[in-house]
Description:
The structure holds 2 protein chains of 2 kinds. Helices cover about 40% and strands about 15% of the residues of chain A.
Amino acid sequence: MFNTTLKTQSFNSFVQSLGVSNLQAGQRGTFNTVSLESYTPAVLEQIANQTEFWGKQSLLHSGTFISFDIEPFLNYSQFARDAAWPHTNNALPLNLYFSWTNPAKDGFWKRAILEASRVIEETARQEGQGVGELLLYPNYAMVENEVGRVYGEGDGNLERIEEVRRRVDPVSFSFFFWPWMFCLFCRIALADV
Amino acid sequence: MKGFQSVTVSSDNAFVDIGGGIAWSDVYSKLDSSSVNVVGGRVPGPGIGGFVTGGGGYSWLTNQYGLTGDTVVSVEMVLPNGTITRASEGENEELFWAVKGGGNRFGVIYSFRFVPLPSFPSPPTLTRRTN
């Protein structure tokens, strides 16, 4: 990240030096993610290309920040415990973040980040990466993504999550707290407006 | 959740209990003088609250130990109906499974118990050889 304090230091000191989370405070922004098997030269070139392309669009659309965080972890599936977000195939999370100032450009930038994600994923798919099997990291994924891309489809995982939810929250008090459910709730509620 | 920001290392260093309202950078700050660390978030800002329930999560220590959720021993939480309960591998297992990435619709977690790791050792002190 934007770490200019490269030196031998304690873990705490290192983390504190990375305080850029409020870089775009007061602006509008959105995260999204692509999960990859590998950061190959072709994928990295496409990421660079997308950075340039959308960067050039910024001036016309009140864009202030275009970010693609490449996160190349080593294999970690060997540590995986059974969990509602399965992580047994070493997916590598690419973190996209776009920010802008004009509310009238919300639609543009949301479509932009989804398009950038789609193109990068397609590049990976073209060279044989099994990206369709890799789940999107919920903490990064935009709510517009299909829930099956985040939690899996046809394997009972979503149903198992829902079963737990039904048992602890039969009246759906928490229905509107989780982004994908919140979106659905909003659409239902606003349909009457 | 501002009242839930405690970080407590057990006397035998067997586990670390962390309140559900604290930011990860504050966790590390509180652990700085101890001999243990936890697999947590990577930058100042994000809190522990939505991190594990949001799939978390990736850490600077993931290469060595996996995701944060893989190092959680148990959680204590309030269910939507107001019941206080504990979940772990062995107690309310499905609930424990669900809160690791399944979202925040299962209740409010007010305490997480983690496996602590050895903190990184200090750089070795250079000593003058006397022979």
